[in-house]
Amino acid sequence: MLTGALATAAALGLLAAMGKPEPWIIAVWLVVFGALPAYLPVLIAHGRSLLPPHVVGRGMTLFNIGSMGGTFVVQLASGALIDVFAPVAGAYPLDAYRTVFAVQALAVLAVCGIYAMMRPKRPVS
């Protein structure tokens, strides 16, 4: 799970570091990036394994709300961050998008650090 999350952060960081890549590079990046976050089902399964049987339904609901709610928060924060930059000729500057991708990469790294420090209360089976 951490490997997928770290690869996701690396891909976002790479996009933030690139200036204005060629369209074919963006196409390749999108294909790779589309496959990287496929670790979410494994993460949800890991979370489920940490729950006692009598709260599995509520716990899974919470995990799903967290993943969908997290998507909402990331989109909302990204839009607010882009709005910090003044549009030029009706479009936001490249630096606005680079900043958003860099912040997203840092956020994924921060969450990876938190996840790596957590220890299950019972062995995962």
Features:
125 residues, mainly alpha, 5 helices, 0% strand
Describe the structure.
- The chain has helices spanning 2-17, 23-35, 40-49, 56-83, 94-117.
- Helix 1 (2-17) packs antiparallel against helix 5 (94-117) and helix 4 packs antiparallel against helix 5.
- It is an all-alpha fold.
- The chain contains five helices and no strands.
- It has one domain (2-117).
- It is 73% helix and 0% strand.
Quick overview of this protein structure:
The chain contains 5 helices and no strands.
Q: pLDDT under 50 segments (min length 5)?
A: none
Helix content: over 70%
- Tally the beta strands: 0
- Class derived from helix and strand content: mainly alpha
Write the layout of secondary structure elements.
Elements: H1 2-17, H2 23-35, H3 40-49, H4 56-83, H5 94-117
Helix pairs in contact: 1-5, 4-5
